[in-house]
Design brief:
The structure holds 2 protein chains of 2 kinds. By secondary structure, chain A is mostly beta strands. Chain A has one domain: Neuraminidase (6 Propeller). Chain A has one helix spanning 112-117, and strands at residues 5-13, 23-30, 33-39, 43-49, 56-62, 68-74, 77-82, 87-92, 97-103, 122-129, 132-138, 144-149, 155-160, 166-172, 177-182, 187-191, 197-207, 210-212, 220-227, 233-239, 243-244. Chain B is of the alpha+beta class. Helix content of chain B is 17%, strand content 33%. Classes of the chains: A mainly beta, B alpha+beta. Chains A and B meet through β9 and β21 of A and α1, β6, β11, β13 and α5 of B.
Chain lengths: 255, 419
């Protein structure tokens, strides 16, 4: 089976931005515009805008999440993820504080819970579609997309990702597909809801006016995935955190 | 007598990702068939069966750039009962389907010249309840029970089984019931297998790169296993006589020590043989202590109305070790967060009242005792007769005191503790 590979431009939002207080920790698309969350020493801040240069502060609230990993807006409610605790919070605007809502690790009705409860898995990003919160689990060769049904409370295994570092998830309404960013190769894999892979986009990074093809010798890794009203794809940049080491030392004469 | 090998890679390699599903198959095959004079294990290539992919063909990338692990074998005729007779020069003998795997094992079980069998598996692995399984390329499950039942039909005195897939340690409790099995797995029954990466130490970087600049990936466990297979000072199967099971145990223990000590990612390599028992590599750091309780002992019921409630207490380790005052324990029931026990409160309790159509019920209090660092349940369990049970962290001082069996089961039980 041949999977088409196309190059796509990835626009990078730097961790620090002139219009945002503190460090950006999450980005997401909502109705053609962007949603971003940042953290300072004492607070979390939520911004909305058509693109990263026109973000406006909409909420500021108490910083009580240890590993902020993703943000969603469902209706008028904001949901924030703790990546390591696998705990989804909802922002209680009346007290300006995120309140714990769903602890994903404790739903033990199917195979998705094996991933969430294994050592060292983390949820890197989440997306809302079809009454479900879909989330990217980074878990070695079991890295995958799972979903939490907000109506029934069921947890479901979706599909394995092509790549062990899914770091961003986006539902593309036009294509009716999920796009999953893998930060190892800065590629985006396009999946239908049943997990069928239809296309892979190799990311060509754009920072300012200069395109940088990172491939494997990357100075940064990418995280999050969002699309703006001009169909531009956006990712966040983070300092390099992982590095590949020496694979098989070859004594394989004849290969 | 002869040594045979069966290599099974159920994952699908792509040029853009997971090419190690192919690369590692080639590396293991090559190290097994190389003669010991060339630092290999000297298994006759005619006795090595390679099952890979979906259609029985070798991996090739679209652009034809990934050539380092393209190989040709000496031409040979395969004639295994139940499988199509074919002349092959490719590495792949058959697609890695359940039917083909079982036919190969059945054929080996019918032979009388099998002195030892080496089995290697790679692909996606999964766990569901108490079963681990290898995910087949059609998405179906090849469970630890099914795999073991086939392995145990082989008549030889020694079978060496090496597994790289996630949750592969879950195969050990099945395979260990036959003392002829020696098992080495990349990870435990609750852990993942990882690509050959290093999260913590960027030094010593040596990419597997060819002259065209193409980078090839490998699994972490496979990387170290291949180093062992290609070094006769670590492992030399051709020196061990058939029937000398202790000798094979010694040799594979050596491989386990090498692989587990070389592993630089968060994998807990596992090992079992009849001589050395069940051994585990490094203990992993866990991010959370969890105790999950079922008070009615029917957690697998398909009908959610009849399935027991799962009650979880969790305590992030990061909070265990830091100096913050606002340490918390999370209580959730069926995934919904119900209460946070906060330590600065001194005393804290949560009223629990669960009822499943009169068949099962739980009514009482979860009470946090911060002085003794524990949470206990006090109240009544209605319905099932069985003793409640805990998955995960079982409180060390757990006790169960049944006070009034005639009117439900009034009891007191410690459900969580911390250091």
């Amino acid at each position: 089976m041949s999977i088409p590979i196309e190059v796509v431009k990835l626009n990078v939002i730097s961790k620090k931005s002139s219009v945002v207080k503190g460090d950006i920790t999450a980005i997401k698309s909502i109705n053609g515009s962007l949603l971003a969350m940042s953290q300072t020493k004492s607070s979390f801040n939520i911004y909305e805008g058509a693109n990263p240069s026109s973000l406006n502060l909409t909420h500021q609230f108490e910083k009580n999440i240890q590993y902020p990993g993703g943000i969603l807006k469902i209706g008028e409610e904001y949901h924030i993820l703790d990546s390591n605790k696998k705990l989804i919070y909802m922002l209680d605007k009346s007290i300006s504080r995120p309140e714990p809502q769903v602890l994903l690790t404790s739903i033990k009705v199917n195979t998705a819970s094996a991933i969430l409860n294994a050592c060292n898995s983390s949820i890197t990003d989440m997306e809302y579609h079809d009454d479900k919160i879909w989330f990217a689990c980074m878990a070695g060769y079991s890295s995958s997309i799972c979903s939490y049904d907000i109506i029934t409370g069921h947890l479901n295994f979706g599909f394995y990702t092509i790549g062990s570092r899914p770091n961003g998830i986006l539902y593309n309404n036009q294509r009716d597909q999920f796009m999953v960013l893998d930060s190892k190769r800065n590629s985006i894999s396009n999946y239908s809801k049943d997990g069928t892979l239809s296309m892979v986009n190799q990311g060509s990074m754009q920072k300012g006016n200069q395109g940088v093809d990172l491939k494997d010798n990357r100075p940064i890794v990418t995280k999050g995935l969002a699309i703006d009203s001009d169909d531009q794809l956006w990712v966040m940049s983070q300092k390099i955190v992982r590095q590949r080491v020496s694979p098989v030392i070859n004594r394989q004469k004849g290969v | 007598m002869n040594t045979y090998a069966v290599l099974i890679s159920t994952g699908i390699a792509h040029s853009f990702s997971y090419d190690e599903f192919w690369n590692d198959t080639v590396c293991v095959w090559n190290n097994l068939r190389n003669p010991s004079s060339n630092n290999g294990q000297g298994i006759d290539d005619n006795n090595i069966f390679v099952l890979y992919g979906t259609d029985g063909t070798d991996f090739k990338d679209e652009e034809g750039r990934m050539t380092k692990y393209s190989v040709k074998r000496d031409k040979r005729t395969l004639d295994i009962e139940g499988l199509q007779k074919r002349d092959r020069e490719t590495l792949t003998d058959y697609a890695a389907s359940r039917e083909n795997i079982e036919k190969v094992f059945e054929w080996l079980a019918s032979k009388d010249d099998v002195g030892m069998v080496f089995v290697w598996t790679f692909g996606h692995g999964f766990r569901d309840g108490s079963e681990s399984y290898l995910v087949m390329n059609d998405g179906s499950r090849y469970t630890d029970t099914e795999f073991t039942s086939k392995i145990n039909t082989l008549k030889c005195d020694t079978r060496i089984i090496c597994m790289q897939q996630c949750f592969s340690g879950g195969f050990i409790d099945n395979l260990m019931r036959d003392k002829r099995n020696i098992v080495l797995t990349s990870c435990s029954d609750s852990g993942f297998a990882y690509p050959a990466d290093n999260d913590f130490d960027p030094k010593d970087v040596e990419l597997d790169k060819d002259q065209n600049g193409v980078i090839y990936n490998h699994g972490e466990f496979n990387h170290h296993l291949c180093n062992a297979l290609s070094n006769t000072e670590i492992l030399n199967l051709s020196k061990i006589e058939f029937g000398n099971h202790d000798g094979f145990c010694d040799a594979m223990m050596n491989v386990f020590n090498y692989v587990s000590s070389s592993n630089t990612v968060e994998e807990a390599t596992q090992y079992f043989d009849i001589k050395y028992g069940w051994c585990a590599g490094k203990k992993l750091k866990e991010d959370c202590v969890r105790s999950v309780w079922s008070f009615g002992c029917d957690t697998n019921n398909e009908n959610p109305d009849e399935r027991d409630d799962l009650i979880e207490f969790s305590y992030p380790m990061t909070e265990l070790y830091n100096e913050e005052q606002d340490k918390k324990i999370y209580l959730s029931i069926n995934g919904k967060l119900k209460h946070i026990f906060k330590m600065e409160r001194g005393k804290d309790k949560y009223r629990v009242r669960l009822n499943k159509q009169g068949k099962f019920g739980l009514e009482g209090w979860f009470i946090a005792d911060y002085y003794h660092r524990l949470i206990y349940f006090k109240g009544t369990i209605i319905g099932k007769e069985e003793k409640p049970y805990c998955i995960g962290h079982v409180p060390k001082s757990a006790y169960y005191h049944q006070m009034d069996p005639a009117n439900g089961r009034e009891c007191s039980i410690i459900v969580f503790n911390w250091v």
